[in-house]
Amino acid sequence: MGFRKKNKSPPVLSHEFVIQNHADMVSCLAMIILLGLMFEVTAKFAIMFITVQYNVTQVLGELRKTDDKSEPVNLYQYGPKDVATVFFYLLIAVILHALIQEYILDKINRRLHLSKTKHSKFNESGQLAAFYLFSFIWGCSILTSEDFATNPTFLWEGYPHAHMVFQVKFFYICQIAYWLHALPELYFQKVRKEDIPRQLYYICLYVVHITGAYVLNLHRLGLVLLVPHYLVELLFHASRLFYFSDENKQKGFTLWALLFVIARLLTLTLSVLTFGFGLPRTENHGFSLADGNFNVLTVRMTCLAAICLTQAWMMWKFINFQLKKWREHSQNQASKKKTVSPKSKPSKRETAKGGAANGVVKSEEKTSPRARKAKAS
């Protein structure tokens, strides 16, 4: 009769302790920031972390038909205090990540009994699918309310777009916070060393592109490009989740491959249209940090080159992925053909033995020597 091993708690502040309790530690830090709102001395600092900063009230020039008064609108700019807001919502993202992992993904993993490799990929796809779904719905609601997608000229008309509505600014704050939170999650989730470079690549690409669109006042173009991209990525990770549950469910990957190519072409088309034709024809040219104007040739060509290189890299990875799948499929087909090989032709000896064994002797066959002697006598 064996002894039961008692689960000893790891030493305080050790690596294992931090990994097991990181969500509780982060939630305590977030609660401390929220408690700062209760005291007048710390309230002004706590608000900087929680609420969106740099509120600007403008008066629209358009007049109503029934009233001659103009309508004041609350808009927002970006500034250094946004770093504090991004930090707070980074903590919220860590907490939500832990909740999804513990109460949804871990329970599904126990039922599926996946291997270590598939277990890691299942967790990654589960987290990203939830984020892509939420971001896609949120982005679509902004596009419909702000009419960003109805008129392509709206992407560059009136540049610099230094002012944003609340939903647009909060969307970018949450996007940057989420992708920054993915960096410490590589440590908290004990991601395998083989998967770390691949995840670092796309995390850094998201952070650079989203932050660049936010800082350069290209949030309209960035939002229009993010929504279809998130739809394609949502379809891929949802298909991978279904594949891990049942390997026969692979139809989603075909639809994903088609939409992936369309999304890349759409991204390149809108980028060339904006940086190559739209922004050069606007009235405001020049470089001004105070006005948020970055409409110069160097910035435009740098942004366009970064987008084109990223799309080319994604297409290269996509082609390699498809070739790998095609090779695996061809190898599986070849192995099946070997296992079910056609019947080999029988040899002369086997036919002779088979004929004698079946009790059928052909007339053409010669008699034995003993039979000859018997006949002679």
From TrEMBL:
<feature type="domain" description="TLC">
    <location>
        <begin position="120"/>
        <end position="329"/>
    </location>
</feature>
<feature type="transmembrane region" description="Helical">
    <location>
        <begin position="200"/>
        <end position="217"/>
    </location>
</feature>
<feature type="transmembrane region" description="Helical">
    <location>
        <begin position="126"/>
        <end position="144"/>
    </location>
</feature>
<dbReference type="GO" id="GO:0006616">
    <property type="term" value="P:SRP-dependent cotranslational protein targeting to membrane, translocation"/>
</dbReference>
<feature type="transmembrane region" description="Helical">
    <location>
        <begin position="223"/>
        <end position="243"/>
    </location>
</feature>
<protein>
    <recommendedName>
        <fullName>Translocating chain-associated membrane protein</fullName>
    </recommendedName>
</protein>
<feature type="transmembrane region" description="Helical">
    <location>
        <begin position="164"/>
        <end position="188"/>
    </location>
</feature>
<feature type="region of interest" description="Disordered">
    <location>
        <begin position="330"/>
        <end position="377"/>
    </location>
</feature>
<dbReference type="GO" id="GO:0045048">
    <property type="term" value="P:protein insertion into ER membrane"/>
</dbReference>
<feature type="transmembrane region" description="Helical">
    <location>
        <begin position="255"/>
        <end position="277"/>
    </location>
</feature>
<feature type="transmembrane region" description="Helical">
    <location>
        <begin position="28"/>
        <end position="50"/>
    </location>
</feature>
<keyword id="KW-0653">Protein transport</keyword>
<feature type="transmembrane region" description="Helical">
    <location>
        <begin position="86"/>
        <end position="105"/>
    </location>
</feature>
<dbReference type="InterPro" id="IPR006634">
    <property type="entry name" value="TLC-dom"/>
</dbReference>
<keyword id="KW-0812">Transmembrane</keyword>
<keyword id="KW-0472">Membrane</keyword>
<comment type="similarity">
    <text>Belongs to the TRAM family.</text>
</comment>
<feature type="transmembrane region" description="Helical">
    <location>
        <begin position="297"/>
        <end position="316"/>
    </location>
</feature>
<dbReference type="InterPro" id="IPR016447">
    <property type="entry name" value="Translocation_assoc_membrane"/>
</dbReference>
<keyword id="KW-0811">Translocation</keyword>
<dbReference type="GO" id="GO:0005789">
    <property type="term" value="C:endoplasmic reticulum membrane"/>
</dbReference>
<dbReference type="Pfam" id="PF03798">
    <property type="entry name" value="TRAM_LAG1_CLN8"/>
</dbReference>
<keyword id="KW-1133">Transmembrane helix</keyword>
<keyword id="KW-0813">Transport</keyword>
